[in-house]
Design brief:
The complex is a heterodimer. Chain A is mainly alpha-helical. Chain A contains ten helices and no strands. Chain A is 77% helix and 0% strand. Chain A is elongated. Classes of the chains: A mainly alpha, B alpha/beta. At the A-B interface, helix 6 and helix 7 of A face helix 2, strand 6 and helix 4 of B.
């Protein structure tokens, strides 16, 4: 008995500390990324289109904090401008995925039957192709470009949102206040918007942060394959790809973009985690 | 002129293995304006399903037959969009558990406004003013402050008052209250019932009150319908049914009540057995297995309802036998 009490106490304490840490770390990393992207709109240490062959492939120096790439461009500046691309990809993909996916999920949960079946099987179909494959497909149809990769990523996140929304909405539809709303004469569309959506908004927000991170990763992967943002616009994924040939000669070239991607994705995941803990009443009690 | 008149209303459902059963089996009744009709019976006897059938809001897989005449139209034949215009505007409902009947993420004022905004073309601030009026009428204190509160910030009784305000929002002709006081404690029950009775007297709405509490019925009801296994076994005016219960089930329910002032140690008389599973009902009277006066005829056919005079209908082959037996013994 005594042992058990001694055992659980520190664990709970540790958990209590880690949860707000997730949230704050996530907020810090995310807001820093956004701030850097905004700053890069007006100012970067060096121009990202200025080629300076004499100072190519430098290790970090006082003039170039994170070194320079094969064309002598400043890595820090490239990473700063690359944040714009990452944020745009994330926002577009999440808006597309959440906008279409949540509507489809709500519709499926409200209508059930045939509509539900069709929407869910269509989601299975989209899910059966990996995002990279659908991006390659779009790229072969329309040619490579940032829009195609963003559309492919957004398209791929539709079924994720649709499934999650449908599952949580189905639970809400069984609640009595939905029956009460129906006795008040509200139709399915009105009930979905006014009663179901607000009750599952928390889950959607959390999923959005995670999908945002997934989109940045997917964009990095697609850029790495040459299907993403075309040069000269800098993108984190393509920086990694270009660094590959110089791995031995200049490892910093790969380390900094890689670390940036890892850090931002980690931050977004922790933000999602922290938000979930903050919102979910089941975790709130433990906190 | 009855506002609502149900004729041979029946609901059929299937068990997962496909057996057909009738949670509501051919019940007929009228509700007049300003009248309180009580539907009484044990859990699972079909009271709530009957209420949902009146609203035409049965769960998937349930089939409804019979007529629900309301305002000159048969609700059972109306398309869904016309039903939506009636629900909440002309008929509304009060539920058993006010915590779950309210949306947890919407303020109570907003929820009272909703039916008004759905059914009437009036601006938002007029709807809000009406919501304040309604909440004041149902007895929420400090409405101006409370109107933006969320359901969890209110007590159980206040939540039920909010649900009643929502039901009243569009001045309906009929309110169906499904066990509106079961989830509340006794003193609050009394207040909520008083509120409902006041509203009926004040506005002349009809009230269908579903309950298993006979004390409530004897006090409030104009008319009583006693349900057993999906059927109405006895119906009549409340005074008549309570003074002269004819069906052995009704008599059993009344005998099982504790009376104030009865000597200490007096044992209550329960009805033996329990409610039969609806899906396994045979051809006879559903109450036969629990009835003290069961005879051969009871096992062979379902008794039709018989008029015992003064609109007192009983579905029993031998409504007098129980009376006689008691007369002989007592």
């Amino acid at each position: 008995m005594t042992e058990a009490i001694v055992d659980t106490a520190p664990k709970e304490q540790a958990r209590g500390r880690s949860r707000p840490f997730n949230l704050w770390f996530g907020i810090f990393v995310t807001s820093t990324t956004v701030a850097v992207a905004l700053v890069s709109l007006f100012w970067t240490p060096y121009s990202t289109t200025r080629i300076d062959i004499r100072s190519r492939l430098q290790e970090p120096t006082a003039a170039h904090w994170l070194g320079t790439d094969v064309l002598g461009r400043d890595i820090l500046s490239l990473l700063m401008v690359g944040a714009q691309n990452a944020i745009i990809v994330g926002i577009v993909a999440v808006l597309m995925g959440a906008g279409i996916g949540v509507s489809l999920g709500l519709w499926a949960a409200a209508r059930r039957g045939v509509v539900d079946e069709i929407i869910m099987r269509a989601c299975d179909l989209v899910f059966s192709f990996p995002v990279v494959l659908s991006a390659i497909m779009l790229a072969t149809i329309w040619g490579p470009g940032s829009i195609n990769s963003v559309v492919a990523i957004g398209f791929y996140s539709i079924p994720i949102f649709a499934r999650m929304t449908r599952a949580s909405a189905q639970v809400i539809w069984t609640r009595e206040f939905i029956l009460a709303a129906r006795t008040a004469g509200k139709g399915q569309a009105l009930i979905s918007l006014q009663h179901v959506l607000p009750n599952i908004a928390n889950i959607i927000v959390v999923q959005a942060t995670i999908s945002f991170a997934v989109a940045i990763l997917a964009d990095a992967a697609l850029s790495y394959l040459g299907l993403g943002t075309p040069p000269p616009a800098p993108s984190w994924g393509r920086m990694l790809k270009e660094a590959q040939s110089y791995m031995i000669q200049d490892p910093y070239l790969a380390i900094f973009p890689g670390m940036t991607i890892a850090l931002v994705v980690l931050g977004l995941n922790m933000l999602g985690d922290g938000l979930r803990d903050l919102i979910d009443p089941r975790f709130a009690r433990e906190r | 002129m009855a506002i609502l008149s149900a004729k041979d209303l029946a609901v059929s459902m299937r068990t997962p293995d496909g057996t057909l059963f009738h949670p509501v089996n051919r019940i007929s009744f009228d509700v007049e304006a300003g009248e309180i009709v009580c539907l009484v019976g044990e859990s699972g006897c079909g009271k709530s399903t009957a209420a949902l059938a009146l609203m035409q809001l049965l769960p998937d897989g349930a089939e409804c037959s019979g007529e629900v005449n309301f305002g000159g139209r048969d609700l059972a034949k109306l398309p869904e969009d016309e039903l939506c215009q009636i629900r909440g505007a002309r008929i509304s409902m009060v539920f058993q558990e006010p915590m779950t009947a309210l949306n947890p993420v919407q303020s109570i004022g907003r929820q009272v406004m909703e039916p008004i905004l759905v059914h009437q073309r009036i601006p938002k601030d007029a709807a809000r003013a009406r919501a304040v009026e309604l909440l004041e009428r149902v007895g929420i204190p400090d409405v101006r402050e409370r109107i933006d509160h969320f359901p969890h910030q209110l007590s159980g009784g206040q939540r039920q008052r909010v649900v009643i305000a929502m039901a009243l929002a569009c001045k309906p002709d009929l309110i169906i209250a499904d066990e509106p006081t079961t989830a509340l404690d006794t003193t609050v029950q009394r207040q909520i019932l008083d509120l409902l009775v006041d509203l009926v007297e004040e506005t002349g709405i009809g009230l269908v009150l579903i309950t298993h509490n006979l004390a409530i019925v004897s006090e409030l009801a104009d008319r009583v319908m006693v349900m057993y296994a999906g059927r109405v076994v006895e119906t009549g005016t409340a005074t008549e049914v309570f003074a002269n219960p004819k069906h052995p089930y009704t008599r059993g329910l009344l005998a099982a009540l504790a009376e104030p002032g009865q000597p200490k140690g007096t044992r209550l008389k329960p009805i033996r057995g329990s409610v039969p599973a609806l899906a396994s009902l045979g051809g006879g009277c559903a109450f036969a297995d629990r009835c003290d006066f069961v005879q051969l005829a009871c096992r062979e056919a379902v008794p039709e309802s018989r008029d015992m005079g003064r609109n007192h209908l009983v579905s029993c082959f031998f409504p007098e036998s129980a009376l006689e037996w008691e007369r002989q013994v007592g």
